[in-house]
Amino acid sequence: MTDPSDSIDGDPTPKRERVSVPDEVDLPRLLDFYELQTEAQTEIHEFYDNLRDGRLTTTRCTDCEEIHYPPRIVCPECTGDDLEYVDLPHEGELFAFSEVRGGLPLGLAEHDVPYVVGVVDLGPVRLSARIDDASYADLEIGDPVALKVVEIDGPTDEDRVFYRFEPSKGL
Ligand SMILES: [Zn+2]
Description:
This protein is mainly β and about 170 residues long. The protein contains one helix and seven strands, in the order αβββββββ.
């Protein structure tokens, strides 16, 4: 601790203790909102395996035929657990959208804002996703959007992917 009376030759300003902050903030596990994706870590690993292969899929109950999103391990309609993975369309329509301008959690890159998030209507299901390559002002409800698979950089060594959408090109 610095003695507050420890000042330089009559200078009334006391010497201050100098503290440092870390050069880097390790991303706390709770703030990494991308799920771990291997068989050892999640029972919906098949969803991520398919996504890694470029296919957007989800579960369908073989008993009541309900299609769920996100994928389930038990059917929320009939509690059956005989589910199969089915392909979802890779193109849909923008059902709703908004823009994120700030307030990002610790560890997320501030340079990423603003970005657009939306609800995409794929027909069988609606899902929320980030909408890349568009600004809020460019978009309208009903705009066609297409799937885009991205690879996630860190903070684990695991090879992870996730889905986003972007405005459809050349339709
Ligand atoms: Zn069911």
